[in-house]
Amino acid sequence: MDAPMKAQHLGRSIYRLGSLLTRNNSVGTAGERTTCLRLTAKKLHNPIGSSRKPLLLPCRQLSNLAEQFQAASDARRQPVNVHTVFRTEEDDPIQQSSAQEGLFYTVPEGEVKRLFQKGLSVQFTRQVKTFNETCFMVRKPALEVIDCLKHLDLNHPAPRFLLYGNNGSGKTLTMAHIIHYCYRNKWLILHAPWPSDWNCRYHETSPSPHKAGRIDLPVEAAEWLVNFRSQNADFVRDIKLSQRYVWTKRETAEEGSPLNEIVEFGLNRMKFASDCVGAILKEVRNQAAMHKIKVLVAVDGVNAFWNMTTIKNPERELLTADQLSLVHNYKKMLLSNWTHGAIVCSVDAFANARDHREKHYPHYLLGKEGYKWLDPFVPVHVPDYSEKEAYSCIEYYLDRNWIQHEAAQTEEGKKELIFLSNRNPFQLMRICSSK
Amino acid sequence: MATSTMRRLCLLKVSRKLARCSTAVQERCALHTSCMVSKAEDSSSSSVSGTSITSSAVPDNLIKGSMQPKTFTKAQKISRAMQAYMERAQSYDKMIKKEIDEYDIGKRHLANIMGQDPDLFEQEDVDRAIEYLLPSGIFAKKARPVLKHPYEVFPKRKAAQFALDGRPFHSMFYTGKPNFYSLLLNVSMKIEELKKQEDKLIRKGLLHEEAEKKLLLLGSEWITLPSLKDLTLEPLSEHDHKHFTVLLGRLTEHPLAFKEEEFIMKHRRKLMLQSFAEDVPKPMVDDQGRAYITASGKRKTSIADVTVWTKGTGKITINGQSIQYFSYITHREQILSPLQLTGRLGEVDVEATVEGGGGTGQSGAIRLALAKALASFVDTDTRERMRIAGLLTRDVRRKERKKPGQKKARKQFTWKKR
Amino acid sequence: MEGMSSVRKLCFAHFRLLRLSFDQTAQSRTFCREAALYQRSRHQRNITEISEEEEFRTYEIPGLKIKDDTRYKQRKRRQIPPPRYRQMPIDQDWTNVWPAASTFKWSVVPFPVRQGYVETATENDGVIPPKYANAELMKIPNFLHLSPAHVKKHCAALKEFCTEWPAGLETDEACQKHFPVEVQSSDYVFSGPSIRDPRARTVTVKLHLSDLELDYHARDKFIRLVGDCYNPDSDEVVFTSERCPLKRQNDDYIRYLLTAIYFESWKKEAWEDEKAEEDMEKYFWEISKSKDTVIKLLQTTKEIDKASASAGDQKLQYLPDDTSEESLLALKEVQEYRDAISECMNDGEDDNSISKYGQAVRKLLGIRGGVNTEAAS
């Protein structure tokens, strides 16, 4: 992507904001619209790169309309609130503390590619692509869980953390933040990005070769394997199998061979991918007990494990998620009968069926069975943005030129955005985008 | 003989015209009944039907001192028409008098029924008593039982427009709308007068001195057709009203129009100051010393009750939920608008209960209720701005009904040739 | 007197005519004969008259001579008296004139009330229709109400049938306390041929559950037995019966029902002890799986702590050496956890109860960190 293209990309202007202000022009509240492009030899911000690096951009060099627009909007920007801090230099989640709360930190490109191939929402991924950088906000729930992980006694049975909160309050991103911390801290990550997909958005099903009555999802299992391999590239090489696995008469995984072998096998023989997932989970559980590694189990929308699937058995009855071999194996990881690890899950109303989405509380979403399975867990509330966080987020969007309306610079404009979004992160994102 | 026939024919024409006028007079328009001063002394007591006053149609036996129809002179004929008019006026007076008597006695009866003092029984007491004794749930208030003074019940009539000799008082009598046309004439005379004055000033070179003086017409509009009818007591059409406004507009456009300000303002109606007039409820104070007020609003089929507290944190509750009760941004913006206009965003707490209708209706209802409540907290200037912005006005639009033979309210079925 | 007789005659003639028409078949021939006889006799009489007068017969052109129409003149109608209200004195006693609520009568109501919607000046000359023959005023909602004087008079008349309100039942609370069972039924009065109404048989009995003497088990059983009749929000039990044809029978049935259910709920059958966790009326932590999990978890943790040689601050300090179930259950941390989870399950979840639960779990599992941020909020 060359520079002008990027600029054009950013040039998407959003006029949602302040539509009311412009409407009330007659009353006399709205500001004037400046139509001319005032191009002076001012210091202009580079729209793409870091905004902290000023770039001198003479008029002649403005090649296309998007750049001119960009430059003009930058030039017009009032010096109000420019110095509001919304970013932190502290890119390492290990070092972050409540001092950085409400600020954005940038995740390096390479780590994003490695860690978050699957784990982020579609809307956020799109935004990341547009902004050309991945920024997470340092928020209290993530700091809380990370702090707990820091003080964890790994010899004890793995504790369970359950993130809960409103729709769009940032549970997935909190989890991503935690995963990032664990990655930096050399944890092995068992991440199930959205197991609700296993229930209803599967590609194909096949009966399990390992146990009759179970259903395999080969494609999903393979996807998980790929994600696992990219997230834990080092561990996959280092961990040696503690037992022999026999897939067929000819195909076996010998004791002492690296974990990578199972992953490769699962990807090559998709039929056994689900069983490979089971084997990996079992191995990881055993290896953790042998004090070799720290394990993070992360499941987003864990309540999907106790839901119905859309798969039908030969008797035309809907199966429960329990009958999927993937879910069955993963559920074993959620019990605290193993050590040297931690379990971080989130409950999400969207992982439930449409008629069970009224509340966002754990017991309601998990149901009796799920609650019994996870109890005792540490509930971690993921709230909507606080005042500071909301302003910080708007500043970030302004910095990215994502909001281009002049009124967004003003205090009233920001208040309007906060009012309309009710400080809900997802709502704020939606309101500030054209979609 | 021939001449006399001719004369008779002429007379007939005149009297027919007269009759037409008098019927028109009877149909519409009012002058205070007290204006009905009897101009002729020799009024007879017999009654004549109002619509048949052509000379041939009047029955002989009804005219006092009946004469032979063939020997009527012009004066006699005219006096007969006048006589007929006087008779009608008298019978009307009589009827009104009777009605008034009955009203007075009835009022005393009503006071007796309600066990109150008849001498202190006012019209408000009468209305209250009627509502108590004859309760009616009819939607139109006009259609409910009433007991009113006959002056209010019977429409007023115009007095005689011509003297005993048959000559109309007004020079424009034969136009049919003498008052109206004299008004128009008056206006055009004034325009001419102003033109003359302007010429004079131009000649003296003093026109620029008068340039600063302007006629301020803001905040008022020309009187409507019904009020114009009331003013002239004549049946006027839309077209007449247009004529009137155009002519007066021409007068106001004149640079010296301010000289006729008094005359012009007589024909204009004051706008505005509506919300000044209506008294805004005063906020109450709760236990924590916060002022609060409750207001209700409607839109489509939704009804909302909104309570607004000052010194708040900007918390919004709608049926126990946050602003996310509305999933569309447009609906949230509806609620935002009054807060934004008054500059109270983030300063007041709002609690709303709303029921009925859908998102648009509910948000609109909340908006109206919220604006009404906020109006109690803001100064008059802001309130006026709110009113002009339409925040304090109920949106009366409703869903249009579906029509048979059509798909929706307006949409037609697909047309197929066969 | 003369008038009377003429009337009687007329009646007779009429009666004869009627008879004639009734048995026409029998007498038709007779009638014909009689008619012919009558004609003949009349003719003869005419001849004799003419001969008596001896005058020249004139040709009468029909329509030229003025007929004597006195014969056809109608009888005088009875003079309609002026409406009653004209004779009323202004200080009359209205309750005597209009003793009870009834339909509007224009001739009795002494004030010129008007009703009707007049849209334009041309309609009815712009005048609201007066009360005479005004159907609008006669419609049901417009019946003339009783005046305050009426109400006073009616109350005075009813007073002798009233008994005194019992002492000690002045307030609603006192009534509720002394008469906790409320029986409702309705009687219907209407102008029909039957005095019965099927709706009259319905009987409703209401009582508050707290007014019954029940222990925990009996209360639970009572609620289960009555099912939908119990409203937990108002703590009210409502029985309604219309199964029997008579009100009395329904009343008896409900009384029987209430008695039977009450005594039944005090009984405890042997099978009631077999109640499993799912059958419980609410969440009991002691029999739940949660208890087993927690005990097992704590026991494992203690074993690990014992085995490991690491520093003391990493261990769960509060755990006693004796890890039997009883000693663990007696621990403060476990009890706190029990209360927290019971609150969550029984009183419903909210942010408050969940955070309480979180605190309890943190203490139970000895999870450190993240607390200061929690406390900051």
UniProtKB/TrEMBL annotation, chain A:
InterPro entries: P-loop_NTPase (IPR027417), Ribosomal_mS29 (IPR019368), Ribosomal_mS29_met (IPR008092). Transmembrane segments: none annotated. SUPFAM superfamilies: P-loop containing nucleoside triphosphate hydrolases. Pfam families: DAP3 (PF10236). GO terms for biological process: apoptotic process. The keyword Ribosomal protein applies. It comes from the Eukaryota. One of its GO terms (cellular component) is mitochondrial small ribosomal subunit. The keyword DNA-binding does not apply. It is found in: Mitochondrion. One of its GO terms (molecular function) is structural constituent of ribosome. Keywords: Mitochondrion, Ribonucleoprotein, Ribosomal protein, Transit peptide. Belongs to the mitochondrion-specific ribosomal protein mS29 family. This is Small ribosomal subunit protein mS29.
From TrEMBL, chain B:
Pfam families: Ribosomal_S9 (PF00380). One of its GO terms (biological process) is translation. Its main location: mitochondrion. GO terms for molecular function: RNA binding; structural constituent of ribosome. Residues 399-418 have a biased composition (Basic residues). GO terms for cellular component: mitochondrial inner membrane; mitochondrial small ribosomal subunit. InterPro entries: Ribosomal_Su5_D2-typ_SF, Ribosomal_uS9, Ribosomal_uS9_bac/plastid, Ribosomal_uS9_CS, Ribsml_uS5_D2-typ_fold_subgr. Residues 398-418 are annotated as: Disordered. The keyword Nucleotide-binding does not apply. It is found in: Mitochondrion. Keywords: Mitochondrion, Ribonucleoprotein, Ribosomal protein, Transit peptide. It comes from the Eukaryota. Belongs to the universal ribosomal protein uS9 family. This is Small ribosomal subunit protein uS9m. It comes from Littorina saxatilis.
TrEMBL record, chain C:
Residues 196-269 form the Small ribosomal subunit protein mS35 mitochondrial conserved domain. One of its GO terms (biological process) is mitochondrial translation. One of its GO terms (cellular component) is mitochondrial small ribosomal subunit. GO terms for molecular function: structural constituent of ribosome. InterPro entries: Ribosomal_mS35_mit (IPR019349), Ribosomal_mS35_mt (IPR039848). It holds the Pfam family MRP-S28. This is Small ribosomal subunit protein mS35 mitochondrial conserved domain-containing protein.
